[in-house]
Design a protein that fits this description.
alpha/beta, D-Maltodextrin-Binding Protein, domain 2, three-stranded antiparallel β-sheet, 17 helices, globular
Length: 441
């Protein structure tokens, strides 16, 4: 008799449960009603503490209540600092107990592929119902054709900048080249208004800046074969040399110690002229228009615009900020977890949450490009178009487990941080090359 592996058994049970649901998944997604098969079950969902606080209030209040009424599931939403998520994931897997669903960032799901439930049927049906997934969402959530999570959103990042400050130095638009940015921000730093970025170990702002920066110069971690480490190149060395000058001449040099909240605070306090970030700075400034004011006493949000990271000799890029919900393999509530995600991703329910984001998140599926949220504020509209332009960590290879490990170790960020702190460019690149090679052996 052929041996049935745990993974195959799990897939068979999930597939059979989904197929047995009255009316089929398409009807559930259309109606927002999940079958009441999980009465009395609690589903524990671990997420980051959202940079749009209103969304967490909505999840823990109204949506939790709606979930109970529609599905019979008691939803427990737990939010923690995003930089603490990976340690919680690791401890949960090692102990075999913890949240039923955990939100993973970027290509983290690749690290945990053997420890999560198969989500193939659910993810495929959501994608078919909602116009298909962005590639950056699909690639991080699949291994060998198997879905290891359900794509949740894509967090777009653009440079938020003070329009009037750039106009004061003669610029009506944000610089679109690195030379232009250096020239502009040198002038602004002399006025006490530097560019602000992090070169620290923090989950979002560091990779969202340094990966696209590397690519814009033509640098890359590995070749398309996903095996040959290619970082030690002339293009990478030139990017490091320029980064050192940019940092010391144009940036807030305290950024070496910043996390993902530091640049938000710096911008809103008026101490930096620009920073690469999600839409949260603008949304917060608009939410507290009486608190965040310009030096002239006017609402700051009216002086904020967004632009793409500058282009270099290699092009202009973004890092795909994919978010994926993983149903954990140790969970005893996998069926209820699937029922909940099926209900939550139905159009009427997800639309409630999506509206609360105000443009901070893009949907993982293309349907949400047409949502009315994008008509509400033209300053946020550029975020809608970020996902199709994005690359993933590990380029030019696939965003697999090895690429995720490089990202988790902050090797690309540390490449630039070491040079900023005095290591010669060639030595910093050689160090990073060797570290990546250890991962890709």
């Amino acid at each position: 008799m052929a041996r049935i592996t745990r993974r195959k058994l799990l897939k068979l049970s999930v597939t059979g449960a989904v197929a047995a649901q009255t009316g089929g998944l398409a009807a559930i997604l259309a109606s927002g009603q999940a079958p009441a098969l999980a009465q009395g079950t609690t589903v524990h969902w671990l997420r980051w503490a959202d940079f749009v606080p209103a969304s967490d209030v909505l999840l823990k209040g109204q949506i939790t209540q709606e979930c109970q009424k529609a599905t019979g599931i008691t939803l427990k939403v737990e939010t923690i600092n995003a930089n603490d998520l990976q340690s919680r994931i690791t401890s949960a897997i090692q102990s075999g107990t913890g949240p039923d669903i955990i939100l993973a960032l970027g290509n983290w799901p690749q690290l945990y592929a053997e420890s999560v439930a198969d989500a193939s049927d659910l993810a495929e049906d959501i994608g078919k119902d909602q116009g298909g997934y962005y590639e950056v969402s699909k690639q991080v959530a699949t291994v060998g054709g198997r879905w290891i999570g359900v794509p949740f959103t894509v967090i777009g990042t653009l440079i938020a900048y003070r329009k009037s400050w750039f106009e004061e130095i003669g610029l009506k638009t944000f610089p679109d080249t690195w030379d232009g940015l250096l020239d502009a921000c040198k002038k602004l730093k002399a006025k006490g208004r530097p560019l602000g970025q992090t070169a620290g170990h923090t989950f979002g702002d560091a990779p969202n800046w340094w990966y696209p920066y590397l690519w814009s110069w033509g640098g890359k971690e590995v070749e398309a074969d996903g095996k040959t480490v290619a970082l030690n190149s002339k293009d990478t060395i030139e990017s490091v040399k320029f980064a050192v000058g940019l940092w010391h001449d144009a940036c807030d040099e305290g950024g070496l110690a910043w996390d993902d909240t530091s640049n938000n605070r710096a911008f809103l306090s008026g101490t930096i002229c620009a920073t690469n970030n999600g839409a949260s700075i603008y949304i917060e400034a608009k939410r507290k228009s009486d608190t965040y004011l310009t030096e002239k006493g006017e609402p700051m949000w009216k002086d904020i615009l967004h632009a793409r990271i500058p282009k270099g000799p290699g092009g202009q890029f973004n890092l795909g900020g994919s978010q994926t919900d993983m149903i954990m393999g140790y969970s005893k509530n996998q069926k209820a977890a699937q029922d909940f995600l099926r209900w939550f991703h139905s159009k009427p329910v997800f639309a409630e949450w999506f509206a609360s984001q105000q443009g901070y998140s893009d949907g993982a599926t293309r349907m949400w490009e047409k949502d009315k949220v994008w008509d509400a504020d033209l300053v946020l509209l550029p975020f809608r178009d970020v996902p199709p332009l994005a690359r993933l960590a590990g380029y030019a290879g696939p965003p697999n487990r090895k690429a995720a490990e490089v990202g988790t170790k902050y090797i690309i960020t540390d490449l630039y941080a070491k040079a900023i702190q005095g290591m010669p460019a060639e030595a910093a690149v050689k160090w990073a090359y060797d570290e990546i090679a250890k991962v890709y052996v």
